[in-house]
Structure prediction request, 277 residues.
Amino acid sequence: MKLEALSTSVLLRQIIYGQGGTGKTRFIGTLNEDPRTAPVLVLNAAGNPITILSNKPPPVVATIEKLQDLDLAHSFLAAGQPEKHRLRDALELPPELTFKSVAVDTITEVQLIKNDQITKTGASLLRPGDALQIQQWGESLRFMVHMTRLFYALPIHVVLSCQERYEVKPQGGVKTRIFLQGQSGDIVPSYAELIGRMTRRKVKPSSKGALETTGDPDKEADEVLMTVCFWESGGSYVVKNQVAPLTLGDYTVDPTAAKVLDAIDQQIAMQHQAPAV
Prediction:
């Protein structure tokens, strides 16, 4: 046991999820645009890095093809990013480069890689592998929880992205959830402090990012399709906000890491200004 040093600085422990093309990878790229989170190491597992390679400067992107690649990246970060490490050699990183953030894009694909490993699925289309047995689902869950805990224990910002899935609610209607198979979809998100759902919505710039839902053809001419990240839910999708419930709002138009961290800083400032009870 050791005494934990309390600090007003907050490290992101975040999950962002949504359909393909909603801006998950673009949000990850913004980690490289703010001095509080840059530079970022992007661990690409079926993400869409082409959307951020034009960033100035572009982030370091490493492809995750097997779980050993993910383990190599984690071991480097957990060891304090030493000057001599196999990851530096593999990515040809300069010895002075120290990452302030890491992102795994996406953990949906990471779980699929793990499940293929469990079932010994080959590369042939004619050999897709067997379905996971009950005890094998437990192995998949243990890996996903272990991976999440280890990455969130790193002393840098950590963002995990995920695909989304839909589930029919017993009382009717549909709920959007994080797409992880088995119990991982319920347990892995519990380790995140901030979960946002990415989507594309029509936004009216003149209303300072307010969402337009009137459907009025005369107003639609002024609307622009943009990425919106929801932090609060009406019950139709899964979100969580334990870091800035008073300042982040229900949603953010054109979300960036800087906007999230600014809201967290505002929340901390408000708490310090609040009178003692």
